[in-house]
Amino acid sequence: MRAPDPLIGRDLLNGQFQIVRKIGTGGMGAVYEASQPSVNGKVAVKILHAKLANRKDLVSRFHREAAAMSHLHHPNTVKVLVYGEDEKDGLLYIVMEYLEGKNLNQTVRAEGPLAPERAIPLLVQACHALQEAHEKGIVHRDLKPENIFICNQGGMKDYVKVLDFGLAKVTEREMRPGSMILTQEGMVFGTPEFMSPEQAQGKTLDARSDIYSLAVILYEVLTGKLPFDAKSPMEYIQLHVQKEPIPLSHRVPGKTFPPALDAAMAKALSKDREQRYQTAAEFAQALQLSLGQQATSHQLSPTATSHVPPSGNNSPKAPEAASAAPVPQVHASPVAAPTKGVPIAFVLIAFVFGVVVALVVALIALKR
Q1: Are 113 and 139 in contact (CB under 8 A)?
Q2: Which of 39, 48, 76, 173 could, after both became Cys, cross-link 129 (CB 3.0–4.6 A)?
Q3: Selected catalytic residue, list 5, 86, 142, 158
């Protein structure tokens, strides 16, 4: 029988938070649900595994995650409320907002590949969160579907929160004097399936590495597959560096995407980071434009053409929602059609009469 978790029921910060249950666990720590009695609410608490407390490198990484996330205030980034070290036994913790929902990996596994109309707005939100991080000199470096959480917030569905800046690098301009960047060139961190070519080679990273990872995530969300066929993490690393990705519209037989989306993905997945979008905001804009192109192509396709019922009392009643859309007005030339209500026969008689009168006038003029 498994021993009970000693952290369940524990207080943090002099009773401000009380741990209720474990939500999940990872390599570095576990995440718990905790109550916050002062506001009758709940929070999520990430706690470093006790067995790792003596690892200076991991403790520094844990502090780095907390510091990086505390700098970020974008609504699509999970909010850090407080972090620190418990005075009783040195327990390291990060208190964050509590989220209910599923991460992107769980969503795709449960529902299958997502349509662009749903997938692209999700990734655009992630782009906006990362834009703020990049502007503050923070590179995530471990973007993957598990770190993009989908929840309902304020009545809004499919609201994205970017999680887990545990591998985040805070650049020199963001570091305090005397501090040291622990992740140095030549060291490879991250998740092989989603890492950029430069990350796979252990090079110094910048915002463009995150953009590449986001593109791989979107690729998988749209197709259910990754841009390469590989059998091991090491093979993924090699392919990111050496092989061009399979074009998006070629990945799944019979499944194609708007040309603008294919082009945006190809650019974001470029081996050369100089050829990629240079900011997350640029990538977001390209994705939004491609979604607009898809909407236009659907609107012009024969299957999307609205059916006009025949006139008469027996024709089906149009949906009420359709009445809200303005009906385009067609302006015809006044010469092109006779005035409404005037019989065509009358118009023809008037025309013939006018011709006869003109001929008579001409003959009189000749006789004179």
Answers
A1: no
A2: 76
A3: 142
HEC assignment per residue over 171-187: CHHHCCCCCCCCCCCCC
Write down which residue in 249, 271, 295 finishes a domain.
Answer: 295
Write out the two tokens for 295. 């909407």
Its domain, for residue 28, covers 7-98
Virtual torsion, Cα 312, 315, 319, 322, nearest 10 deg: -50
Spatial distance between the Cα atoms of 189 and 215, rounded to a whole number of angstroms: 18
Q: pLDDT tens for residues 200-237?
A: 998 999 999 999 999 999 999 999 999 999 999 999 99
Is residue 280, in this structure, part of any structural domain at all? yes
Instruction: Please say if 89 is a catalytic residue.
Output: no
Q: Which ranges constitute the DSSP H helices of 55-115?
A: 56-70, 104-111
Indicate the pTM of the whole model. 0.73
Residue ending a domain, among 79, 98, 117, is: 98
Residue 151 lies in a domain: yes
**Number of neighbouring beta carbons within 10 Å of residue 96:** 21
Task: Give the single-character DSSP code of 263.
Answer: H
